[in-house]
Protein: 3-isopropylmalate dehydrogenase
Organism: Parasphingorhabdus marina DSM 22363
Amino acid sequence: MHIAVLAGDGIGQEIMTEALRALDALGLDDLRLDHADVGGVAYRKHGRPLPEETLELAKTADAILFGAVGDPELDGLRRELRVESAVLGLRKELQLFANLRPAKAFAGLEDLSALKPEVAGAIDLLILRELTGDVYFGEKGQRTTEAGRREGYDVMAYDEDEVSRIAHVAFRAAQGRRKKLCSVDKANVLQTSVLWRKVVEEVAAEYPDVELSHMYVDNAAMQLVRNPGQFDVVLTGNIFGDILSDQASMCVGSIGLLASASLGTSTRGLYEPIHGSAPDIAGQGIANPSAMILSAAMMLRHSFGMETEATRLEAAVAQVLEQGVLGQDLGGSASTSEIGDAVVAQLA
Amino acid sequence: MHIAVLAGDGIGQEIMTEALRALDALGLDDLRLDHADVGGVAYRKHGRPLPEETLELAKTADAILFGAVGDPELDGLRRELRVESAVLGLRKELQLFANLRPAKAFAGLEDLSALKPEVAGAIDLLILRELTGDVYFGEKGQRTTEAGRREGYDVMAYDEDEVSRIAHVAFRAAQGRRKKLCSVDKANVLQTSVLWRKVVEEVAAEYPDVELSHMYVDNAAMQLVRNPGQFDVVLTGNIFGDILSDQASMCVGSIGLLASASLGTSTRGLYEPIHGSAPDIAGQGIANPSAMILSAAMMLRHSFGMETEATRLEAAVAQVLEQGVLGQDLGGSASTSEIGDAVVAQLA
Ligand SMILES: CC(C)[C@H](C(=O)O)[C@@H](O)C(=O)O
Ligand SMILES: CC(C)[C@H](C(=O)O)[C@@H](O)C(=O)O
């Protein structure tokens, strides 16, 4: 088990420390951890947010634990030097095309959501976002129109292979859940979506046990507010997934508890909390490490097939919550290390 | 005052009847109403969702009152015959580039929102969505990749003139409100957004009294759930606006009460409720005509500069709500015509 540990910026380092302690407490054999720089910290040390050695490590490791990147002081840099390019570069270079974002209400914490507790409490969905195509990676640039005006452009596109591989992941995920899949697109306007819908329908033929529906993205954004409990697995493209997965996380309310996985065709995956680098609270020891620990659990499950250990980690985090050991983000006062201690104690 | 009345499909006819009664009750001089077919009803009668004579009328009228289009039985038609093409065609042909979608909580109705009453109750925002550019109107189609795979594509683009004209509308709108403008884009990924942000900044120089901020669209989708009360005017492009404006409406909860205006450079505008044709309840006389009546009020304000009459109409709708004359969508039992009657009675 060779893990690339990319803690990154802001609270990334603090929460990673606790996730590694929790992993350690599981007493796993053959755990090899290699640390490398990514994001703003990598730019400051090496002049690039995704140094060559970091990328090499990520490519050779079995899995990547990723903290967070983001450094407001570096926002002014040109595109290739900004932290986003590290995120996009890792996804593309490792072909991590499937982003899994489970959003589930935590019992007792429904009140943290801006949604009514009964609405938030019903959330138990998985967003499957395509991560290496769409308007993110098409041709893009600045040009001059015939009328001599400045214009920015980005080409949105999906080919059938890109759609089909993520669709298969989504259908299989639905089979392991409540067997409902809602594919979100804008097929009444976009040709990219017309192909998307067609290919999803074709793939559906192989999964007769999964109930497939289609929804336009504007309606999906409404339904995620009105009644998010209606969704099981939501499949969508890169840009719509960017928007809807963040919206869904916020509907749950406790984004300090939400983890994510980005997978390719192999078992290699990248695992990260959905919250960001939170520069405002970095270095204070008050960040909630739970989402990072839960990301490590996802890693054990998806990259190493260690369902038992993954479940143990998740249960430990849940028990700590039930004990009322809550970080400031959840209305409590436990520090980063206190939460980590409590999780380790549970695992002992 | 020459008004093109395009009632459209489903509940469109029923709610339009009440809006016209309300307009009539205002006792306006020189009101000329010309009716024409649009949407599924137009397709069935004339073979096209936007017949030439309808488009001509819309182009020559001073304003367009638009009900709703949408007919599930016609969803299988090819693109140019589907109702969406009427919507997009009107926007493009009339160059209605500025879509105004106010979303405001109605006192006493906060509980209809899935958001907590104190969160929903604080909503008072205006979304300004660009309506004639972006990935909606760029080159699009199906093609074959070099590897021989099917691919769908759509070009997203904005030029500086398109951004600047909607930005001016947004800044002026902000001046008439709480003087806060939040421009939403995805400038960390999209070149279209990089230009968008640059031009918005340039236009901002002319409006020093307006406080401008920028937000990524994924964050905006989160903030609209977490704390929608933070927004005053939200400016965004066509596709992000499609998603965010529907999300914002649902946050308010009572979408039967929300109106919209689509404007160009002249005072000609198209006014429509944000809800759709609701085929499930069409013809039953139970649709809530309030949003249609409020759309007529927006028309009086924006196309005819009749602020007094617009306010009278809006006040009448608000009073009827306060009297507890509520449609089924708001938990009451008033019929379409009963709500219309009550509004007319208020105006008398
Ligand atoms: C940082 C940014 C490029 C990224 C994205 O848009 O994909 C982020 O928002 C995310 O969702 O992981
Ligand atoms: C019907 C459709 C083309 C349209 C759009 O996407 O603009 C609708 O969703 C809207 O928001 O008016």
Summary: Chain A touches chain B through 60 residues (CB under 8 Å). Residues A 188-189, 218; B 84, 87-88, 242 surround 3-isopropylmalic acid (ligand 2) (CB under 6 Å). The longest helix of chain A spans residues 160-175.
